[in-house]
Amino acid sequence: MTAMTHTPQHRVSRVVASERAEVGELADASLWSMGPAEAAETLVELTRLGAQVTELTLRVAAHAETVRVGEATGAVSTGAWWAHQTRQTRSAAARSMHLAAALAGPRTLVRVALAAGDLNLDQAEVIVRAVDALPSDLVTDDIRAEVEAHLIGHAGEYDAKALRVLGKRALDVIAPEIGEAHENRVLGREEAQALAAARFTMTDDGHGKT
User: Fold this and answer.
1) Among residues 135, 65, 51, which one has the least CA distance to residue 98?
2) Which residues of the chain have pLDDT under 70?
3) Whether the Cβ atoms of residue 204 and residue 210 lie closer than 8 Å to each other
């Protein structure tokens, strides 16, 4: 992947170019003098930095979609152009573009938490999916925001797998009556599907037995 081919003008572009150059200088830096405590702290900070870079990447991706990046080259979508330019798979780029759109739109709280390094990418994706999965006919925008904030609040103690479980039960905490109505609906649908799939067959074996 190549560096920027022109002098960056926008503040974000300038910072990205500068940070890439600085990090590049660390490629051969020896770590022998870094003690256990500093190594532990640095590893955590790098993880948080990675989350912040991810948020910025997704924000720029959402903007790239707005300004139709790649259109001049005939790319079918910004995601397809991005995948080609960075050697990502199209499915990975499409997944990132979907999350970018969510963070640029209704999931502002997730974006802010990711930008602060308080979430990692997996946690952010789980929270977005959990909020998007809430029944649109039962849940208001205010309740969605409460569920979003609720899950973000637990991100400091739970990983993405645990947050996925919490997300499925979030309505029981935020809006118990709605959660119960939704659960009853889901159970009813599952029972109907099980009934539709049930089969009972009796066959005559031709020898007087069934």
Assistant:
1) 65
2) 1-5, 178-196, 205-206, 208
3) yes
